[in-house]
Amino acid sequence: MIKKVLIANRGEIALRVIRACHEMGLKTAVVYSTADRDSLHVRFADEAVCIGPPASRDSYLRPDRIIAAAEVTGADAIHPGYGFLAENAEFSAICADHDIKFIGASPDTISRMGDKALAKATMAEAGVPVVPGSEGEINDLKTAQEVAEEIGYPVMIKASAGGGGRGMRLCHDAESFPNLYRAARNEAEAGFGNPGVYLEKFVDKPRHVEIQVLGDGKGKVIHFGERECSIQRRHQKLLEESPSPIMTEDLRDRMGEAAVRAGEAVNYEGAGTVEFLVDADRNFYFMEMNTRIQVEHPVTEEVANCDLIEYQIRVAMGENIVRESVRHDEIRGHAIEFRVNAENPARKFSPSPGKISVFHPPGGPGVRVDTHAYAGYVIPPHYDSMVAKLIVHGRSRDHAIRRGIRALDEFVVEGVKTTIPFHLQLLKNDRFREGDFDTKFMDSFEFDADAA
Questions:
Q1: Which of 201, 225, 250 is the last residue before a domain boundary?
Q2: pLDDT over 90 (residue 135)
Q3: Catalytic center residues
């Protein structure tokens, strides 16, 4: 039985976990850097421990300091949130070594799914559709060229330990392949300490659709339907919604079943996400598995009427999953999440840290705001630029869009630039409203600074 949870994270996700714990009657402790001493997660936790200076490498990425904080506060479990150490197999193992329950996947699962080439091989063996490509890493140019010819151009060169678009190159022909192959390996080495790369067939005009899963680590895995995540910039998501505009009942069944097989293949424990590329003909291919809770989990909570953080904790306590996968008739309406970041869309989304002078979040029916910000709060430059997540829920996609426009109009943040004007323009874009977009949508979207 878990009695006290230490949250090894910051900002809105730390506050989100605190709320779930308190509703379950659990005590909470948090860690914080000196830059976050005034964050709301520090204020609302039962205990808070400062673990270092602002730089992540000296605070939130220090397993030794986080374990020490858990021991000092008497926490018997650690929730890692997302980012930082959430998908760090070594940290998961360290928690086990100290008899502290890691609320998340096992070290083996994190390692297997963190290695993109191994993850792909695991999924293929489990019968999950994968993009045609190499079998594992290719560490010499000659072999890579031969495989590229077999697959057929264009091909994607991807870092095995990659993420966020780093160590990734699109190659259209044999002539440019050697230079792009070397560039991908060099970037992978610099970014992840691992130069390994693998090859995949390039899927033209893909949509990024992910399936939320939950596993009990005892063989049972269920899914909660899909999220549409194709609106992204430089492989970073800007907006997510559920259901996906392209979804059919048949496609949801097939993708849901594939995601469950993916979870079963690694005896998955906790909440995770299986991400797929979907082409124009609704063929789908495994892309990766995120072994943690996702930033965009609230849209699933809204349409599936659930608390995914609570489910994570109950699974970690050893409880059985008491529900089955979400049926089509259980999906309630439509939800959209807007990532409100401290960025200036008129200047290519450049960071805009600083002090918030006015903060007025929207309200009303079907409006949820997950945030750690308030008037007077200083957004530090050391971490991601998220100010808040605005989630709206409506009877239909059109209703959710109209509710989103209303809520964004009400959302007042002064003192820093935010992405609110961008989201308003996006919701009024004809292609977006019609659901006619893919992962390259932002390449042609032009933000009108004068109209903001």
A1: 201
A2: no
A3: 292
